[in-house]
Amino acid sequence: ADPAPSETQWERFQSALVQLPVDREQLLVHVGNSAASLRWPRFGLDLVRPGIFLYGARATESDELAPRPAPVAAVRSRLILV
To answer: Which residues are registered as beta bridge partners of 32?
Structure first.
């Protein structure tokens, strides 16, 4: 992925953040998702939106060297009628 758009968004986010009429310490902010948490750890700030990581999948195929996350939940059922 081209990092330029992400860097531009990061800079815009930081510019907007400093203009808020509250102290940064009073906020929980995040800008990163599953893929960003691997590629640009600083994008996590206080929180990260885990997205596809919750299902035990990698964010993109290019993340093949990254560890495969463990799923946090599973759906199971029993067949009761055919």
So the answer is: 48
- How crowded is residue 47: how many other Cβ atoms within 10 Å of its Cβ? 11
Return the SS3 of 38: helix
Buried b (16+ CB within 10 A) or exposed e, 61-80: eeeeeeeebeeeeeeeeeee
Give pTM, 2 decimals.
Answer: 0.61
The sign of the torsion formed by the CA atoms of 9, 11, 16, 17 equals positive
pLDDT along the chain (82 residues), means of 10: 82 92 89 81 85 75 66 86 90
With contact defined as beta carbons under 8 Å apart, do 43 and 28 qualify? no
Q: Where are the domains of the chain?
A: 3-63
